[in-house]
Amino acid sequence: MSFIIKNLPILIVITPLMFSLIVAVLTNNRIAWSLSTFASFLTMIFTILLSFEVSDRSNISYYLGNWPPPLGIEYVIDTISIIPIMIVSVIGLIATLFAHNFITLEIDKKLVSKTYSLWLLTIAGLIGLITTADAFNLFVFLEISSLSAVALVALGSKVDRKALVAGYNYLILGAVGATFYVIGVGLLYGVTGTLNMGDLAQKIPTLGLNKSVIVAFTFMMLGIMVKAAVFPLHIWLPNAYAYAPSPVSVLLAATATKVSIYILVRISYTIFGSSYEIYSFESLRYILLYLAILAMFAGTIMAIFEKDVKKLLAHSSVAQIGYIVLGISLATSPGIASSFIHLINHALIKAGLFMSIVAMGYYTLKRIDVKTIAGLGRQLPITFFSFVICALSLAGLPLTVGFISKLYLIKAAYMSEGIWLPFLILVSSALSLIYIWKLIEGLWYNEKSLKIEKIKELPEIYLPLLVITFLNIYFGIDAGLIIDNSFIASDALMSGIK
Amino acid sequence: MTNEFYIYLSILTPLIAFFTTPLLSSNPNLRDSLGPIGGIITFYSSLNIASLYLDGEVLSFTFFQISETLSISFKITGLGVIFGLVASGLWILASIYTIGYMRGNKEKNQTRFFTFYSIAIFAAICIAYSGNLLTLFIFYEVLTFSTYPLVAHKQNEEAKKAGRLYMGILVGTSIVFLLPAIIIVWVLTGSLDFSANGILKGNISNEYVPFLLALFAFGIGKAALMPFHKWLPAAMVAPTPVSALLHAVAVVKAGVFSMLIVITYVFGINFLTETNGAVWLIWISSITLLLSSCIAITKDDLKARLAYSTISQLSYIVLGGAIATNIAVQGAAIHIVMHAVGKITLFFAAGAIYVATHLSKISDLNGMGKSMPLTFVAFFIGSLSIIGVPPMGGSWSKFYLMLGSVEKDYLLVIYILAISTLLNVYYLLEIPAKAFFQQKRTNIQVTKHPLTVYPTFFAAILTIILFIYIEPLKDITNLIFGNS
């Protein structure tokens, strides 16, 4: 047991990685799914064990192969990184449980086990991204997770061949982002001679005002902003989410961008935070702030006019990423805490929304648009119930997690910028009611357009769907856990700024 | 058994009704009896809460502590006692009436209707007994969402459109204005709890007071202050029991109740008087009051006319709060009760007429008084109470409001109240007058449902009882500023 505890930081990455190799060679699809579920379950257990280890606010530093940094690769688990790890492993398990019906339906039988292999590889890549404290190793995981995600998106081509284009765009833009990032890392290595993040944070301030550092910072931030789909670098996202196979949309929407946002935070606060004053990042943060405001409105307005429901949810994700980035751009402890709160809550909301929407689209086997699923709410009451709860949560109504996010985000915005910013946030969230209401009304009141008679609920998806719905309400009332941990994390991050 | 038990009981009863109604859909009689039984239990516990409150007990409990300064908690305040009594007491009457209306009218989806009816009452009771702004806001939104399926009950294009307007205005204003107002209070004072003398004094500079009050006043869209009043006439597409209990009692009264709570327990009336922060609200509410009375005259649809009359009467209550003296706020609190009883009588009558004859236009009601005497007599009594003629309950609240404005030397307000009373006389009494004194034009088949007629008449008698039996109500309102 102590062996496991000691090696937890690597186990959460290795477990899905190893299982992905095993699953790839299997021929029985059901066993492939069971093994993937088992692997995600194991990962979640390890994450929970790990969260106990860091609950006393200690950092776990793990040297890969016992090579100490700066030469070796260091993995760091602290109160900050445990939050996104938790998101990926919990949502990963829920999405895996949910996936099977849809993967067998939407993907060629021969490719199913390969799909699960890619699926686990994505999870491993995402968790690796979070845990690593080595700037170059981060690039490796960035490539692992995005290449496998691109392949997963392209697998949607059996349903709609546009998935290939969407995957291709995702690949190209993802590669541009990753290249930008690695250029930045190279420049930093050139001037500091180290790749370890902690080391970088110590050495950068000693350089004083250095042009290479400024360029490196810009490249790294831009690269990650593409991955995080920060407006206007989000163009790959709507199509990738919309044309990916249903469960892939769930997984990516709830985890991929969240992890990138976490890296954005880590780069700006951990690596460059200690030189915050030297480079007067104070003025730079306004760029992020205005981009975030643009994202809030652009995403919401695009969503209002969108007919394809999966794309609509993707546009809404762009807006929600705007809220998260807005919190980060405030550069105050409550601001970052509110970002973390929304990071967690939005993962819960979007996972729930995508699951319920694709569950309703299960029978149509084509693009889910507002018309094809009209009236389905009455026939699928449980799925519809989950959808309504998550949708109201997205709009930020009380007793749901979305409300808690909004409460803290607005408080933070009001404290640092005055009344105009909360007002903009609230107007955009009031606008989001328009597309939410369009969906709810269409699902419940409109006449059915689908001619399929035998529509019934899929009992297999009740568990993941209802768990996520329950979490949306539970953490909307008993929000202490999320709020406290977010504040601990933001205080830890802010302590790095000098 | 602790005294807090009664709070649990009054909150849980409608919640239990909400959960059990769908289970009993196969047995309509049993399902429909949940309403009156639940109403009696809730009313009984509200009465006990009221008497405990009068004895000086401070009842409160925290349901959930979200963080240090955020909690979902309940506390009994003087205003809350009054609103709780009104909502639960009239629930009994309305639920009996609803059975008659839904069956007499052969409405579809009755189970869904009764389910959401109970959750709306649950939200109203939670608003009445809420102990801080967060709790108030949460259940304010629950109330909006639970009434949406009731407004859009008919599921046709008109109902859908009305539902959209209803949600758009109520949710929109609450998110864009009310929520930031609450957060500003939270940031300024570090607390959201209600306190007898307000919590803002000393935490906000005087010139910002009117703006913060404006965020609240327009954010609480349920108080139907112009220009955010359109949702109320739109909501009239709902079946009449919804208009009666929810859009004359629970929903709109939740709005003005929240206004009074904010004025007395968040700002504090002394603080508002010192800073003159509420003077603008006196004029806005006066304008709303007069304009909506004028619009009411032009409406030929009975329910639309009653809706505009409601908007005007709600502004009386906001006006009472805005004048911000003890007497005026007491008058406003009493008006919550009096207008509720009076207006529910009128809506019941309108619904009873619709069930019996399927008429909804005032111009069609000529001579109907002879076929439905009990209903129109009830309508007449209810109108008198709204107008404020003794011996109906409505006279008390108008009396207090006028006293309050004299105390503060707002003579213009007295004139406005007088003009509005004249307008009330015109647009309300026109209806029974036509029914009793004009000739019937056509022969109309009248098939009354007894469960719609008797509750109407009983509600009318209640307005008279409330005139005589005003003492306990006065005792409670006397304590609004002392005992909470």
Word description of this protein:
The complex is a heterodimer of chains A (498) and B (484). Chain A has a domain of 203 residues. Chain A is built from 20 helices and 2 strands. Chain A has a two-stranded antiparallel sheet with strand order 1-2. In chain A, helix 13 runs antiparallel to helix 18. Chain B has one domain. Chain B is built from 18 helices and 2 strands. Chain B has a two-stranded antiparallel sheet with strand order 1-2. In chain B, strand 1 and strand 2 form a beta hairpin. The model of chain B has no long low-confidence stretch (mean pLDDT 85). At the A-B interface, helix 17, helix 18 and helix 20 of A face helix 5 and helix 6 of B.
What would the keywords be for this entry?
A: 498 residues; mainly alpha; two-stranded antiparallel sheet; 2 strands; 2% strand; B: 484 residues
Sequence-ordered SSE layout with sheet pairings:
The complex is a heterodimer of chains A (498) and B (484).
Chain A: H1 2-6, H2 8-24, H3 29-54, E1 60-63, E2 74-77, H4 82-106, H5 112-131, H6 135-154, H7 162-192, H8 197-206, H9 211-228, H10 236-243, H11 246-271, H12 281-305, H13 309-329, H14 333-361, H15 376-379, H16 381-395, H17 401-417, H18 420-444, H19 462-477, H20 480-494
Antiparallel strand pairs in A: 1-2
Helix pairs in contact in A: 2-3, 2-5, 3-4, 3-5, 4-5, 4-11, 4-14, 4-19, 5-6, 5-11, 6-7, 6-11, 7-9, 7-10, 9-11, 10-11, 10-13, 11-13, 11-14, 12-13, 12-18, 13-14, 13-18, 14-16, 14-17, 14-19, 14-20, 16-18, 16-19, 17-18, 17-19
Chain B: H1 5-20, H2 28-54, E1 60-65, E2 71-75, H3 78-105, H4 110-128, H5 133-151, H6 157-189, H7 209-219, H8 231-234, H9 240-267, H10 269-275, H11 279-298, H12 302-323, H13 326-357, H14 373-387, H15 394-407, H16 411-437, H17 450-468, H18 471-478
Antiparallel strand pairs in B: 1-2
Helix pairs in contact in B: 1-2, 1-4, 2-3, 3-4, 3-9, 3-13, 3-17, 3-18, 4-5, 4-9, 5-6, 5-9, 6-7, 9-10, 9-12, 9-13, 11-12, 11-16, 12-13, 12-15, 12-16, 13-14, 13-15, 13-17, 13-18, 14-16, 14-17, 15-16
